[in-house]
Amino acid sequence: MPRIGLEVSFDVENIAKIEAAGTDFRYFVKICCGNCGEITDWVYLDQEDTIEVKGGRGLANMVLNCKLCGRESNISIEDGSRKAYDAEKGGFQQIVSFDCRGLEPVEWECRGGLVASTENGKSFEVELEDGEWYDFDDDANESVSVTNVQSQFKKLKGK
Ligand SMILES: [Zn+2]
């Protein structure tokens, strides 16, 4: 079954890493039906939501019933796949991967829940406004920011 990774890229100022906080972090995505190509509106999945897949095929984080063709498909966050973004390294980095059965995510949007931390371990909640976040680190006496949020999905091998 296809595995798909979410790669993101951020421009930062005085930030060492960025991560999706909590196991209930919501990944807002648009999903494309693998059968007919219909794309959903924004939906979200989080790791704490599980739904039984029909036919005793285990659990998934989201089951989609395509509005156009009626095909049922599902998607789950892969266990242990969540990683923090290393700002020093920069560029696109995979922060999570999904197990996709009969569908694929095509767009991601960040709607809060990201935590950015400085080299000294001070952390900030990133509240993006028009895709940008600015704050001030009183301890280090310097500004901090996260801007230019970009994302892409990448098909992964294996499983
Ligand atoms: Zn469909």
From TrEMBL:
One of its Pfam families is CXXC_Zn-b_euk
The source's superkingdom equals Eukaryota
Q: Which UniProt keywords apply?
A: Metal-binding, Zinc
Give a yes or no for keyword Zinc in this entry. yes
Keyword Metal-binding applies: yes
Q: Which PANTHER family match?
A: CXXC MOTIF CONTAINING ZINC BINDING PROTEIN (PTHR12857:SF0)
Q: Please state which protein family the record places this protein in.
A: Belongs to the UPF0587 family.
Q: What is this protein called?
A: CXXC motif containing zinc binding protein
Source organism per entry reads Oikopleura dioica (Tunicate)
